[in-house]
C-alpha cells in the first residue's frame, strides 16, 4: 500500500524548526517535499548550529538541521535573483501545500504572500507560521516566547530562577497546530477544490498549551510561580527522590489509593492516618513536609527494588533517564529515522508516531 499522501507535493520555504518540522511530517506521510533554502546564506541557518564536539562537514549537515529535515529534496535559490525566483514560482505552481515562516514583511517583499499567490493558484493551501500574528513586525524566537507567554515563570525553582525548556517547545507546539490546520484545509479542498490560508502564531500556540496553568489563574486567580517539576494541583506529583544506589525517581501519585500504596511499600504506615496527608488538597498544602518525610524511605531502597515494587502495586513513578539511556530502549530505537544527506549519515526521531489502521 502506498503512503497515504504519496501524490501530494509540498514546498517548504521555511527554516529553523517549526516550519521544517511540518514539512518533515508530510514527508513521513509520503508526500514529496521540496525544501527551498536561501542561497545567500548557504542554506537553512541551522546548518551552522552545531555543538562544540560536532565535526564540521562541507555539506553543512548538523544534528540540529537533521532533526527536522528527512526525506526532502533540498534546493538552493536566491529569491532576489530573477531566474531563481521564477524557478521557485514554478515549484509553487505545482504545489498542493506551501509552508512559510517569513520574517515580517518578507512575504510581500518577494511577492510570495497568500493574496498574491492565491490569485494565480486558487488550489494552493498556504501554511504560515509567525511569531505574534501577521500584523506584528516583532522578530520571534522560541526562548523569547517561552518567556513572554508564562512558560519560564513556571519552569525552574526559587533557587535556579526562571528557566527555558531545553528544547524549542513553542516551535514544536506551533508546528503541531499548523499540521492540524493544513490537514483540515486539505480535507476541505477534497470537498470543494479550493485552497486555503492557514496561519499559526507562536504566541497563540504557546497560550493554547498552558492548559491547567492558565485556568488556575483564569478561574481561581492563582498566579504562576517557580516550583520546578512540582504540580500545582497534585501531590506528591513531580517530587523527585534519590535511591540507595544514587538513581533519581519521580512520583506521579494522583489518587488517595495510590498514596496509601506508596506509604505501604515504603514502610511508612504511620503516615497513612496523618491528617496532614489525608487528602490531595492537604498533601498539596503540606507537600514540603511530606517530601522531607519520604526522602529517607527512598534512600533505603535501590532503584531496582523501587521499580519492581512500584510496578507491582501500580504506583505511578518514573526513572529519570538521560538521553543515552532513553535510546537504548528498543521502543525508542523503532522511532529513529536514518538517511544520508549529501553523503553524511544522519539520524532523527519521527515527528509522526501515531498508529493509523485503514
Describe the structure.
It is a single chain. The longest helix has 24 residues, at about 170-190. Helix 1 (about 20-30) packs across helix 8. It contains 16 helices and 13 strands. It folds into two domains: about 10-210 and about 335-350, Rossmann fold (3-Layer(aba) Sandwich), CATH 3.40.50; about 235-320, formyl-coa transferase, domain 3 (2-Layer Sandwich). It is elongated and about 80 Å long. It is of the alpha/beta class and about 350 residues long. It is about 40% helix and about 20% strand. A six-stranded parallel β-sheet has the order 3-2-1-4-5-8, sandwiched between helices. The chain has a three-stranded antiparallel β-sheet with strand order 9-10-11, with helices on one face. Strands 6-7 form a two-stranded antiparallel ribbon. The termini are close together.
Brief synopsis:
By secondary structure, this protein is of the alpha/beta class.
Distinctive features:
358 residues, alpha/beta, Rossmann fold, formyl-coa transferase, domain 3, 2 domains, six-stranded parallel sheet, three-stranded antiparallel sheet, 16 helices, 39% helix, elongated
Name of the CATH first level of the largest domain: Alpha Beta
What does the average pLDDT come to? 96
Overall number of structural domains: 2
Largest sheet: 6 strands, parallel
Helix share, percent: 25-40%
**Structural class, from secondary structure content?**
alpha/beta
Amino acid at each position: 500500500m502506498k503512503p497515504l499522501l504519496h501524490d501530494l507535493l509540498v514546498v517548504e520555504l521555511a527554516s529553523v524548526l517549526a516550519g521544517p518540522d511540518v514539512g518533515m511530517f508530510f514527508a513521513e506521510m509520503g508526500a514529496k517535499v521540496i525544501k527551498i533554502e536561501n542561497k545567500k546564506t548557504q542554506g537553512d541557518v541551522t546548518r551552522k548550529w552545531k555543538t562544540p564536539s560536532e565535526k564540521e562537514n562541507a555539506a553543512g549537515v548538523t544534528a540540529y538541521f537533521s532533526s527536522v529535515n528527512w526525506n526532502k529534496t533540498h534546493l538552493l535559490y536566491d529569491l532576489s535573483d530573477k531566474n531563481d525566483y521564477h524557478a521557485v514560482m514554478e515549484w509553487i505552481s505545482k504545489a498542493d501545500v506551501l509552508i512559510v515562516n517569513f520574517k515580517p514583511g518578507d512575504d510581500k517583499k518577494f511577492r510570495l504572500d497568500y493574496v498574491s499567490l492565491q490569485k494565480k493558484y486558487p488550489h494552493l493551501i498556504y501554511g504560515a507560521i509567525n511569531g505574534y500574528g501577521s500584523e506584528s513586525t516583532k522578530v520571534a524566537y522560541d526562548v523569547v516566547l517561552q518567556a513572554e507567554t508564562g512558560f519560564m515563570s513556571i519552569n525552574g525553582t526559587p533557587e535556579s530562577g526562571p528557566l527555558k525548556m531545553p528544547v524549542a517547545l513553542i516551535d514544536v507546539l506551533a508546528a503541531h497546530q499548523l499540521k492540524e490546520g493544513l490537514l483540515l484545509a486539505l480535507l476541505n479542498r477534497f470537498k470543494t477544490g479550493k485552497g486555503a490560508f492557514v496561519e499559526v502564531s507562536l504566541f497563540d500556540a504557546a497560550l493554547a498549551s498552558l492548559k491547567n496553568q492558565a485556568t488556575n489563574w483564569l478561574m481561581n486567580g492563582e498566579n504562576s510561580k517557580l516550583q520546578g517539576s512540582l504540580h500545582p494541583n497534585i501531590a506528591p506529583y513531580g517530587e523527585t527522590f534519590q535511591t540507595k544506589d544514587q538513581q533519581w525517581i519521580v512520583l506521579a501519585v494522583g489518587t488517595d489509593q495510590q498514596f496509601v500504596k506508596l506509604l505501604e511499600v515504603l514502610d511508612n504506615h504511620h503516615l497513612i492516618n496523618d491528617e496532614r496527608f489525608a487528602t490531595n488538597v492537604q498533601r498539596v498544602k503540606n507537600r514540603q513536609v511530606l517530601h522531607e518525610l519520604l526522602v529517607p524511605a527512598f534512600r533505603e531502597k535501590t532503584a531496582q527494588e523501587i521499580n519492581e515494587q512500584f510496578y507491582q502495586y501500580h504506583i505511578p513513578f518514573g526513572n529519570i533517564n538521560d538521553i543515552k539511556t532513553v535510546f537504548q530502549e528498543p521502543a525508542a530505537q523503532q522511532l529513529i529515522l536514518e538517511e544520508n544527506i549529501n553523503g553524511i549519515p544522519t539520524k532523527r526521531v519521527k515527528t509522526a508516531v501515531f498508529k493509523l489502521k485503514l
